[in-house]
Fold this sequence. Notes:
Catalyzes a salvage reaction resulting in the formation of AMP, that is energically less costly than de novo synthesis. The protein is an alpha/beta fold. The protein has two domains: 2-73, no CATH class; 108-242, 3-Layer(aba) Sandwich (Rossmann fold). 29% of the residues lie in helices and 29% in strands. It is built from eight helices and 13 strands. The strands form three sheets. Strands 4-13-12-11-7-8-10-9 form an eight-stranded mixed β-sheet, with helices on both faces. Strands 3-5-6 form a three-stranded antiparallel β-sheet. The radius of gyration is 19 Å and the shape is globular. The protein starts with 11 loop residues before the first helix and ends with a helix. Residues 122-126, 161-162, 164, 185-194, 222 line the site of 1-O-pyrophosphono-5-O-phosphono-alpha-D-ribofuranose.
Amino acid sequence: MATSLAQVPSNTQEADQLHSNTTATSPEQNIKGYQVVQRETDGKWSDSNGMSLVGWHKDTSINTEQSLMRAMSLFTFNSTFKSNVRFCDIFSMTSDGAAFQYCCDEFIEEYKDQTFDQMAGTDARGFILGAVLAHQYGAGFVPIRKLGKLPGEVIRLDSTSEYAKNKLELNPSHVKKDGKILFTDDLLATGGTAQSSIKLIRQAGGQVEQAAFLISIPKLGGEKKMTDMGVKVYTLFEMEDNQSVINEWFNI
Ligand SMILES: O=P(O)(O)OC[C@H]1O[C@H](OP(=O)(O)OP(=O)(O)O)[C@H](O)[C@@H]1O
Ligand SMILES: Nc1ncnc2[nH]cnc12
């Protein structure tokens, strides 16, 4: 029986259960250094609207089939939402309590030995992880917003992302001068958004040397942009942007 996206359980425990009943053609396969779980044709995770599920955990020490299947079930992809963009929807993950907790805990673990004065995140998806981590570490949260949404005196910078041009704004009075600030966003694609956001924070007197993203698409160059500006990146997932590779994994 084919497994359409609508039938894929959103609850990760149920996903594990489903997987334990399914035979993978190649349960664990190493592609570009990452462990990947493949489903056989019967169990492919996609539906007739062109949506499919794919993703893998960056931590190669997580190598049990169950962990990988959980990682893979977190995000949905939609290739028709924005033209020419393989749009990765994090809200399939955030709307699932277990999945959301799993991701947040991974970040909490990553930064547990550090202290930060503030988190900063970009409107709108960057607010989610930033707010969770701010609460966890007792740090403040600083919003970088799109044009015209922040009251008070703002500084502004143009930014270009994989599919949009924006004007980003920051209220400098929100930034702790010389404070240690972790920049957060859901996704690092071209890095244009993160680059402009971090420039704004630095212009306001904050120190940003680290940035955290749920997902990165390495092919689009964001990680290099971050490194070039002296920012160390931590991402939980990396996404393959090559449709033919994805098709091959999932027999789509
Ligand atoms: O690395 P880049 O190519 O710059 O792309 C990444 C940015 O694009 C998305 O935001 P979007 O502008 O879609 O806004 P949203 O958070 O309001 O959905 C995402 O949340 C990042 O902020
Ligand atoms: N491919 C993508 N999916 C989701 N959000 C994005 N922001 C920039 N590129 C994106």
